[in-house]
Amino acid sequence: MFILLPMAGRIPQNFIDELLARTDIVDLIDGFVPLKKMGKDFKACCPFHDEKTPSFTVSQNKQFYHCFGCGANGTAISFLMEYSHLEFLEAIEEMANKAGLPIPEEANQPRTDSNLSELYELLEIVVRFYCTQLKEHKQAGRAIEYLKNRGISGEIAKQFELGYAPAGWDNLIEELGKSDAAQKRLSLTGMIIKRDNGGYYDRFRDRIMFPIRDPRGRVIGFGGRVLDDETPKYLNSPETPIYHKGRELYGLYQARRTNKDLQRLYVVEGYMDVIALAQYGITNAVASLGTAATSDHLERLFRAAAQVVFCFDGDNAGRTAAWRALETTLPLIRDGRQAFFMFMPQGEDPDTYVRSNGRESFEDNSQYLALSDYLIAKLKETTDLSTTQGQAKLVDDALPFISLMPQGALRKLLIRDVAKLSDGDEAYIESLLSSQKPVERRTIRSNKPAQKSGNENLVGKIISMLLYQPTLVHTVENQDALKSIPVAGVDFLLELLELIRNNPKISCAGILENWRDTKYEPRLKQIAASNSDMLAVSSRLEEEFLGALTKLQAKKTQQELKQLTNVKRVSNLSAEDKEAIRKLTKISDKK
Ligand SMILES: [Zn+2]
Q: Residues within 5 Å of ion ligand 1 by Cβ?
């Protein structure tokens, strides 16, 4: 029987701050990777990529680690997640144990400030409803027949909590949507749909139901499969406040529960593949839910296991999907992480394959294609290597892909392979790659709406100093004066100042944790990783900080002055206006 984890709510931010304050990142990392003090920081050979000279740096002041080789960085929590393959909550639990801090009660209870936990609870009831229907509903015989035909045992059906949504438009509504409020909640979970002329109807009808659990074990949505050849064959929950399909992986929760030491994960296409493989003892398969694997998916996969094997159909659609998966994987393929590709024989999927060939054949490494081999094989397909033009083309074609990869042994290996094939040498390819850099930067920049202006850099500089030394907040005398300064990033700066004021002991790591999983996180990490050198002269930090703030305030004055003179250019200035301009000019000159 499936034992459910206790319903876990949000961990309060002040508990995370407390935990970070009680944990020294240097001690924590030193317990896994022996660190050496060098200058004001601590160093080691990076545990996340293969290297001979240490470029993995831990800053005690910032409570932050950064590897200059592979770019891995983050807080103590991030380190535990990466190094020990933990999810966020598990990392918190481990740190809390080490620090001897009990996780606050409310974190384990439904949140009162939000209705999200209600939605999780509701879906838990829906799971049980569908499971009961599979056993008891008079039309469930067809569903059971279908599962039997696919070779699914009762035990596996139970383990994955398979259910049956009966035919009809209002089975779920009748059972769980008796009041208006209940119907509203059900519709928030995506299980029922609003009719144009009022009322609701069940989304899933006459389908086998697959509950989708997140890594913490909470039900977040469902997949439903038809029993005949109706379309769509598979139907998924829509995006809801608790279900985001670009992130979740079907089966990951079960895979991690069944396998204490997960080394490898198979990525397959559908629910039935995951379940059919489990039926044959392959309990480490997951499915991305109706979408191509995203970077979020891959980060999650690599955090759970070092080796990821993508399984694709051998047809054209499968090959296209595989190529896309390769492109998504390249930027994430640090040393210590391995990606393989497995192509099913024509007309087969993992389900039929394991049925006819058995587990051993499925798990046989020799039929997998390593990521680099797959890349090279694809590049060779369109190139005639017997000519010099062909050899040059291979190098040309390979460069954009290699440049996606982080530094490390894998990248070097790929360069070596390309050099060998093109009869060139590695140093030449390296030199081409370094001259590729501007191109890389251009593509990154084109994603942003506009180039950074000098003003934004000024805000960036102020934020950078605050990350380095949060106590600088106490030198800000008139925070309100910063409001309504017409410069991008000022709103964020104000939030940051407020956060530090409310948490006087907060470290750089605490600040980063406050914005974990938000759009600000990557930029903040980047600033935290780069601000050590810039601020080496910390004795003059306060002076520099206040200077930058004054400059920022002057922007507002300049703006006001501009407006005033623009408006009044055509008419005569009143004595009042003249006085105002005189004052503003004086202030703006002072900066
Ligand atoms: Zn590294």
A: 46, 48-49, 67, 69-70
Peptide bond into 350 cis (omega under 30): no
**Ligand 1 midpoint to CA 311 (Å):** 29
Is residue 238 assigned to a domain? yes
Q: What is the pLDDT of residues 44-56, one digit of tens each?
A: 999 988 888 999 9
Ligand 1 center from residue 451 Cα (angstroms)? 30
Choose the final residue of a domain: 335, 368, 401: 368
Determine the pLDDT at residue 110: 43
C-alpha 58 – ligand 1 centre gap (Å) = 12
* 265, 301 contact by CB (below 8 A): yes
Q: Both tokens of residue 420? A: 């060998």
Contact of 49 with 407, CB cutoff 8 Å: yes
Domain's final residue, options 75, 108, 141:
108
Number of domains the chain is built from: 4
Cα 301 to ligand 1 centre (Å): 19
What does the alpha-carbon distance between residue 193 and residue 176 come to, in Å, rounded to a whole number?
A: 14
Tell me, in angstroms, the distance from the centre of ligand 1 to residue 335's CA. Answer: 8
Tell me the CA–centroid distance for residue 70 and ligand 1, in Å: 4
Q: Which tens digit of pLDDT belongs to each residue from 471-525?
A: 889 888 888 888 878 788 888 899 999 999 888 888 899 999 888 877 788 888 8
Instruction: Output the pTM of the full model.
Output: 0.65
Q: What is the pLDDT of residues 369-382, one digit of tens each?
A: 999 999 999 999 98
Report residue 2's pLDDT band, with 50, 70 and 90 as the boundaries: very low
Q: How far apart are CA 411 and CA 426, in angstroms?
A: 11
Does one domain contain both 502 and 580? yes
Distance (Å) from CA 44 to ligand 1 centroid: 10
Q: How far is the CA of 372 from the centre of ligand 1 (A)?
A: 20
422 CA to middle of ligand 1, Å? Answer: 29
Residues 173, 65 within the same domain: no
b vs e for 220-244, b when ≥16 Cβ sit within 10 Å of the residue's Cβ?
A: bbbbbbbbeeeeeebbbbeebebbe
- Alpha carbon of 41 to ligand 1 centroid (Å): 16
Spacing, Cα 72 to ligand 1 middle (Å): 6
Model pLDDT, residue 441:
31
Q: How much distance in Å is there from the Cα of 386 to the middle of ligand 1?
A: 38
CA 524 / ligand 1 centre spacing (Å) = 19
Ligand 1 centroid–CA 91 distance in Å is 20
Cβ atoms within 10 Å of 53's Cβ, excluding its own: 8
Structural contact between residues 332 and 300, judged by C-beta atoms closer than 8 angstroms: no
Distance (angstroms) between ligand 1 centre and the Cα of 47 equals 7
What single-letter DSSP state applies at residue 170? -
Provide the percentage of residues in the chain whose pLDDT is more than 90.
Answer: 44
Q: Is 433:402 a contact under the CB 8 Å cutoff?
A: yes
* 279 C-alpha to ligand 1 centroid (Å): 39
Is residue 4 domain-resident?
no
Cα(46) to centroid(ligand 1), Å = 4
Question: Which of 340, 294, 349 has the alpha carbon at shortest distance from 317?
Answer: 349
Q: Are residues 148 and 273 in the same domain?
A: yes
Here the CATH number for the domain that contains residue 93 is: 3.90.580.10
Q: Report the amino acid identity of residue 490.
A: V
pLDDT tens, 326-340?
A: 999 998 888 778 999
Q: What is the pLDDT of residue 572?
A: 59
